[in-house]
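retry 2 of 3: previous attempt timed out while embedding PMT. Reduced batch size to 1 and resubmitted. Inputs unchanged:
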Amino acid sequence: MDNILQQKRILVGITGGIAAYKTIEFIRLLRKQNAEVRVVLTEAASHFVSPLTLQAISGNAVSQSLFDPQAELAMGHIELAKWADAIVIAPATADFLARFNLGLANDLLTTLCLATSAPIFIAPAMNQQMYAQTVVQQHLSSLRQRGITIIGPNSGEQACGDVGAGRMSEPVEIFTALADAFCREQPLAGITVAITAGPTQEPIDPVRYISNYSSGKMGYAIAEAFAQQGATVTLISGPVNLTTPPNVKKIAVTTAQQMWQQSMTAAVTHQIFIGCAAVADYRVAEIAPQKIKKSGDELTLKLVKNPDIIADVGHLTEHRPFTVGFAAETQDVENYAKDKLVRKQLDLICANDVSIAGQGFSSDQNALQLFWHKGSATLPLTNKRQLAEQLVNHIINLYQTTKNNDEKN
Ligand code: PMT
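retry 2 succeeded.
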């Protein structure tokens, strides 16, 4: 759970209650974990805490109104709603709960809550008599049913002198509830994965190169599937026309030698290494410094062998990651794949038959046959996103089993 909130984008909404001063400490805890924080203050809340204080603590300008042209210019309300990985409203007054539950969008905060797809957490705070009212309880129960997480409130002495339920949860309790939720959603937090993807380009002269049909879709889908479950992902990518998935660190390379260099550095610092790239086995021995001119009916290029990245990772003797290779075959898929599993010293190989139209290179779909030393599995034809999710589950299960066995021995 360490650093689970690192780089997470948390939108903190503050409504008008005396407990608002405690939210400053909550924001401080978020910032300590390097979460990015943006604060939205309702009109009433600004009577309890100053925007200047919140700006200093959060490190960002505070948003207060739907109709502030300056704030809308910096980050419009819809943008803000999309920006957030989570929204936390603390304190949440009875008035806010009612408006939110009814689906009103009559201020910036309620509008954001309607416009976001991020999970919403609410820490109610109010007088115990108000909290006990049936109507308040109905709003809370309806919000819970809609998937909103209600944190607290606690019981005890209140600012008004009453004693009972309605005190806002302590900042550390709100922080823990939020971190727990991310932990549940991100079972791979703490796992580090390096993935190669796409083709390599091996220059012939300043205007030509040798390459292949890899689009990078398969490798990028795997990177995205790992990152979505909270893994730390490094994507070593050849030249492709794809957007880097969120929360993935991309290292762009062109040639096999560049990919080898970045891969060998990444391999010893990541727990899992996946070679999905279609690496050119050969490169031109001598790259012509000028464009080769047309002359004669034949042209002979001398090619020399490129390093085998996945085999070099598989054969590491120190800090060797759990190593997953791919096999792109056009015939005798199982035998060739099993041969690569052994020869390249891999833990798992994912074989695809690239002779079948509509799968493998460039297509949006693929099917895989997985082989490891003690078993095999088939992942039938589906889109690369779904296939990647299934593959991630297999890789994680095998990785955990290997790790547990290593720890026992
Ligand atoms: O990118 P897409 O269009 O989505 O297509 C996906 C894919 C077909 C490229 C992908 O699913 C795939 O099969 N990737 C591996 C392609 C390949 O080069 O396979 P191979 O059988 O030639 O190589 C076997 C393994 O050795 C692979 O893990 C490859 O990355 C690795 N290799 C190969 C040569 C080399 N010099 N270094 C390597 O590391």
